[in-house]
Amino acid sequence: MRAILSGVHPKKGKQSLELELIDVPFAVENLAMIFMEKNALTSLCIPIHRRVRNNMVRLTIDAQKFTFEQPGQSEFSWEMYFTFNVEDQHYLLQVESEYVSDRHQLTLDSYFQFNSDAQDHALFDIHTQQTRTDFAINSINLTQDGLTVTGYSSINGEPLVNQTLFLENHATQTVYQYSDTTDLLRGIFSITVPVDNLTENGPFNVYIEYDFGQQHVRQRVILARPLAGQRVSQVQSGGQVVRISKTFNNGIAVETVPPVPLSAKVAAVGRKAGRVKNVVHRLNQKVNTRYMKWLFKKGHRPFDATTIIFESFGGRQVSDSPLAIYQMFKKLYPGFRFIWSVERETVPYCKANDIPYIVRRTTMWVRTMEKAQYWISNARFPAWVKKPKYLTYVQTWHGTPLKKLGLDIENVTMPGTNTAAYHRNFVQEANRWDALISPNDYSTQIFRSAFGFKNQILKVGYPRNDELINSTADDITAIKQKLNIPLDKKVVMYAPTYRDNQFAEKGKYTFELPFSLDDFQQRFGEDTVLILRMHYLISNALDVSAYGDFVYDLSSYPNISELYLVSDLLITDYSSVFFDYAYLQRPILFYPYDYHLYKDELRGFYLDYEKDLPGKIAQNEPDLLNGVAEYLQQPDMSNDPKFQKFYERFCAINDGLASLKVVNYVVHQIETQH
Amino acid sequence: MEPAVFLVTALADVKKDSFGTKLHELLDQAIPVRIIFANLNFVERVNFDQLLATLIVGHEQSVSVASLYDIFCHDDGVPLGATALTRVAHAGLATQRHTHQDGRYYVRYLQNDQLLEESHYSADGHLFYQNFYTDNQLVQAVYYGRQARPETISNFQAGALKETLLLNADGALLYRFLQTERPVQRLFNMDNTSNLQLTSLEAAQPQPPRSKRARAEKRNTLTVGNAPELSFDVMDYVHAGHFDGIYDFYRYALQRLDYRHQRLYINVEHNVALSTALPNQLIFNY
């Protein structure tokens, strides 16, 4: 017996919902739909009076009634349940749906969407308190005719009129304006901007103005989803190319670039050859994985000498807690055998630093992994890496969780897996870990629920943070000298989260910082330097050469702890780096410049972003600069009550002995097994 | 935010973690809360008051409690039959008195080894409720509350509550709540992540399908709960009207309080039954 949401139709500012009923008896009574809001556990029952045909029912809802005042809540996600009686039998069917509607603007600052959860059940999602300054368009494309933008021509049934599109170049103050609106479909308008006559290269930012009721509205044009599927470049008659790209906060930038010279065309051929090489590489990987699986299945016997394998981030680095534990082992028990499992790209680093290694995905690697007695890793191994019975696997994990993990993710949207498979793999892998390191009770609780983990949890703190606790002023001076940072200047570190939408295609766009380096330098440049710690893709696209000895791009510096140590202030957004930095009891400023776009994802956070953070939240650029000025005067946060509350919750294990405790745990295992 | 009303229909409601959490969310915002104590075993009111007192320390002024008696006590009813109230002549009976640590006490009346009556008093000597016994089994409980006259009479059979009579301020009968037990079948198809669970039917809790095939099959499968349902029929002596079960009566009681302008909180376990009785009403669950 099933109830399926088969259609949603706007009707005079309300929504008409159609349900298709399968195997539902005919003589039913008291038909109703119960909506249940997932976060606040609030319900609303709408009786159903209308049965269109035998297997179809229809009800009308007013979306405005599905929001309510609740502190800290601006997102409403409603599940739907269809209920009815047949004499003494009560039926309750959760409504199914695989349908995801487009966003329907409800007011200037709210919209709703019909959605589908991981189990294909229907969801009615309403997003309120959105910014009033943005206008989300449906599509943007470059064609022979110019730049075509489409968008909804009404807000909850009330029409938008006199839509005018503006292309504005902030540098030169040039503005182009177009208002030839056509109806693409009923309810969707389309404006085409001829781009042949743009006299400047840009970039131009795109704005829209329209009349709505009694209001004249001006908004920035945004595209909430990636540019994938849109036509983003067009060669003009003069040979120059017009391009559209997305800015850091989902805005649209239009620019023209001069005709492509021959040398660049030749280089493009080279890139194409590179793509072919990538395909061959992926094919090789597949064959290799099959071979590895076969090798792992063969029986092995342990080495005579106790052998410990270390791995960090799947072999891409020699870093993090495994490195701290390795260094402690080397000092105290150099008689054991230590080997790092690394990817080929990490080999030069190992050679340069005299680190014993074995290259992943080789015959020797399988043999060594299977004959070792201990694995110490900060991330998961693939499921096909077989764990021998005699082996102890210590998982250090790589951070206090901020974003939801494993089983706590209700809806997994990663390519190549589904929610059920992802959950199953997570639990299977986690229960191969004999011990899991936890930095605090908060993490312990999450690890148990998110990983379905039932084995030993070692709440000893993160070994990688020992360095933060144990370093002295002399150590910090030495690091500054190594990095060429003037000793008389204060250091601000900016470490934002990497956002998937920042790059439609690798290396194609120039990254824009969400604040002006000029303003920053003008205000603080005299006695402060700025360290940038970005994702490597962004770092590659960033040009800070004009800022000489003011900006230090240390995105690829191997040890982030050393960067924490030299910084007097951390600026971040949604990255979990602040859990570690808080050990230093120095100020942390949060700058979530695209908070309203990120809010949906914040529901997938374990912390309440607005309440639980240990520092101030800057909503805009002036706030950011004022926050920096204030915090640079307050280098020590140990007397700040909010910070201390956070510190006690997350950094309570601050004896700097985490590596030693893990080493002792392993040594105890070794002693009891011999 | 509008004032809040919590409907409590059993002592277990107050013991839920989420009851305290939601209550505190409101009190922390200085929102006045009214609790409707609609438990038909009125004698449990004493335990309810104690539990509530521990939950609202520091917010006593923001919380008020109304019982069904408080809501209906000025309605007109029908005179109570002469035998409706049990009477025990105290002359010649042995008495025993026991005082609790907080000063409350009760007096037992015994005829040889047979317990006939137990009268419970507050520390200031106010009669709270009386229990009457036949063959040492509880047969009637009369609840006085803060009144000098009975508010409710509950009759028991073999120690189990069978009916409760709600009286008005003049001692006339307003409503009779008759406990019934009938087989009810509940059929539902939900996943374990769904928020609306029929939690009273623990044995029938749905399990997540393990494989893709099981998931596909599950769509047509209903989980069936067959537990006999304890409920109350309501006899109306005020309007000679008809209530369609206890939830319809709860709706009527809430209506008397003009619930539409207040934020209504109920136990989520009663959600399906109560929300269908209160269509188009936003209900906050605990």
Automatic annotation (TrEMBL), chain A:
<keyword id="KW-1003">Cell membrane</keyword>
<keyword id="KW-0808">Transferase</keyword>
<keyword id="KW-0472">Membrane</keyword>
<keyword id="KW-0777">Teichoic acid biosynthesis</keyword>
<dbReference type="InterPro" id="IPR043149">
    <property type="entry name" value="TagF_N"/>
</dbReference>
<dbReference type="InterPro" id="IPR007554">
    <property type="entry name" value="Glycerophosphate_synth"/>
</dbReference>
<dbReference type="InterPro" id="IPR051612">
    <property type="entry name" value="Teichoic_Acid_Biosynth"/>
</dbReference>
<dbReference type="GO" id="GO:0019350">
    <property type="term" value="P:teichoic acid biosynthetic process"/>
</dbReference>
<dbReference type="GO" id="GO:0005886">
    <property type="term" value="C:plasma membrane"/>
</dbReference>
<dbReference type="Pfam" id="PF04464">
    <property type="entry name" value="Glyphos_transf"/>
</dbReference>
<dbReference type="GO" id="GO:0047355">
    <property type="term" value="F:CDP-glycerol glycerophosphotransferase activity"/>
</dbReference>
<comment type="similarity">
    <text>Belongs to the CDP-glycerol glycerophosphotransferase family.</text>
</comment>
<protein>
    <submittedName>
        <fullName>CDP-glycerol glycerophosphotransferase family protein</fullName>
    </submittedName>
</protein>
<dbReference type="InterPro" id="IPR043148">
    <property type="entry name" value="TagF_C"/>
</dbReference>
UniProtKB/TrEMBL annotation, chain B:
<protein>
    <submittedName>
        <fullName>Uncharacterized protein</fullName>
    </submittedName>
</protein>
